Amino acid sequence: MLIAKLAFRNLMGAGIRTWLNVFVLSLAFVMIIWVQGFIQGMNKYAMQATIDYEAGGGQFWHKDYDPYDPLTFEDSHAPLSPALAELISRGAATPILVTSGAIFPEGRIQSVVLRGIDPEQQILQLPSAYLSKEDDDVTPALIGAQMAKQTKLRVGDEVTIRWRDVHGTFDANDVRIVQIMNVSAPSVDVGQIWLPLEGLREMLRTPQEASLVVLAEDVSDVPSGNHTWVHRDLNFLLKEITELVRMKSGSSNILYGLLLFMGLLAIFDTQVLAIWRRRKEIGTFMALGMERVKVIGLFTLEGAMHGFLALVVGAIYGIPVLALTFAKGLPMPAMQADFGIALPQSLYPSYGLRLLVGTTLLVLIAVTIVSFLPASKIARLKPTDALRGKTS
Amino acid sequence: MNNGALITAENLVKQYPIGGRKFTALNDVNLTVQKGEFLGLVGPSGSGKTTLLNIIGALDYPTSGSAIVIGTDTKELSHRESARLRNEHLGFIFQTYNLLPVYTVFENVEFPLLLLGMDTEDRKKAVMGILDRVGLADRAASRPSQLSGGESQRVAVARAMVKKPKVVLADEPTANLDAENSHNVLQMMAKLNEEFQSTFIFATHDEKVIGYLRRKITLNDGRVAEDIETTPQYN
């Protein structure tokens, strides 16, 4: 208690020097939480959006299905297993048929992925119900906003699509864009055309077949896979996003690492200077009867208190800033689709307890360590030398 | 060894390594100091005054021999024990005052009592009491930078005396003061010596200080050249 009292007294007595250090450190503290909050918010959103629009509660893939190799699509479909058919019949799963094809918007050819989905499905948050509109002979199609932008297609436009059926025969037909989806997951938008499942089955001549089956999130009795259908859990399906977020957060970590480094350097510099400049004071402390270990403790605590004060100062201006961004979000740039993962138009941070407590502890521990290192030199300082202003 | 002595130095030797050689700062020093003495270690620069004062103050260790201070051989003390000895029984007054710059006068004087763990009320009473004695009660809230040299040294005296130590060690306490302030400070110390019966040991070559001493130990080249009782010229 005495050491804390003296350390606080010394810090306050140092005036502007203390507050400059505290401000730099608080900046690092607030920035870490701010940036990490957004990264966590982005991570959370990307995960949830992928679950909502694409992954569901897990999937079963045809054994040859490889979403990264469109050439495999023509062979990666099969009739559903009885277990999967049972899940689908009670609304706990929905089949999707996938094939590659091409469209000809404005006379250009563009490769696309054709996806057949049940218009009645409730598992993915895609507006598949629009696909049940069959006013005439033209097949309805859904595309995402990014796809619409790339192809310059609008609602009501008709576009020719070409595909190969199960026998390898090319065929073509017109489809009508019945809705442009605003989905934030690029993987269900860019280069994708959604068609009614039965329509695509007819086009491919693959009745009752699917390429993958998406499970609802609350399915507890997930059947085991077989030689045709392979179960892919959420960890597998979200692995790419997790890796991408980790990679992107790595570059942000460098930024806040630098900020923290600057803050810590200021404390370290202050401590090293303090030991040098305050040798006589250290000698006086010892002459007056302060134990050497307490002098070290005092100087370490003085440094560490910068951390405490930085938390307080950071909280004063940081809480309003964090609260504002939490309420208003951060508008994302127009090229958000290029980011590679699902991003909303406004990104909202996520400040978890782990982030707040973890960052607080990180700052406090780091500051204490950089404060202790110079202070530990006091252990080798002779009181007589210190009183004369010399270093031993 | 003189039984009942407050301080006893026996065959005290202190050597410092300088380059590849050893410099002998104290060479076979023997002396005893009784309670309540007002004595000075006198001699030219390099005669060993400060070294002897530091060993008596448990700030330094002898190379050989012993320094028994208030019944304790300082050579046997750990860092912690010597800190406790200084905290409980010794007061220090330095040539450059060594006031803690960010503390107020009150806080500077209060510091030794904080280390002693005295409670707040007693601390306040003791600090204001001694500040009153040195005539600085009205400067309690001032910082050292706002004080004159004489005032600073009076604060240093108050800090040394506030815990009523058995021994006060003063190293050239008037070296930075003018004649008037020197006499003021010395008169104050002489008075406190009488009242508290604390033993004062000066390291000095200032004639003004010597004029107040009742015993003068002259050191020359690390040896006691003379140890005499004197009659103070000033009162």
What coarse outline of chain A follows from CA principal-axis ratios?
A: elongated
Extended strand count of chain B:
10
Residue-averaged pLDDT of chain A, rounded? 87
| Alpha carbon gap, first and last residue of chain B | 32 Å
Please tag this protein with its features.
heterodimer, A: 392 residues, alpha+beta, 2 domains, two-stranded antiparallel sheet, 13 strands, elongated, B: 235 residues, alpha/beta, Rossmann fold, 6-stranded mixed sheet, 7 helices, 10 strands
Q: Could you explain how this protein is built, in words?
A:
- The complex is a heterodimer of chains A (392) and B (235).
- Helix content of chain A is 49%, strand content 18%.
- With 392 residues, chain A is an alpha+beta fold.
- In chain A, helix 1 packs across helix 9, helix 2 packs antiparallel against helix 10 and helix 7 packs parallel to helix 10 (353-375).
- Chain A is elongated, with a radius of gyration of 31 Å.
- Chain B has a domain at 7-103 and 163-229: Rossmann fold (3-Layer(aba) Sandwich).
- In chain B, a hairpin with a 2-residue loop joins strand 1 and strand 2 (21-33).
- In chain B, the strands form 2 sheets. A 6-stranded mixed beta sheet of chain B has the order 6-7-8-3-9-10, with helices on both faces. In chain B, strands 2-1-4-5 form a 4-stranded antiparallel beta sheet.
- Chain B starts with 6 loop residues before the first strand and ends in a 6-residue tail after the last strand.
- Chain B has 235 residues and is of the alpha/beta class.
- In chain B, helix 3 (105-116) crosses helix 4, helix 3 packs parallel to helix 5 and helix 4 crosses helix 5.
- The A-B interface holds A 2, 5-6, 9-10, 12-14, 280-281, 283-284, 286-293, 382-384, 387 and B 54, 57, 59-60, 79-80, 83-88, 90, 92, 94, 96, 98, 100-103, 107, 111-112, 114-117, 159.
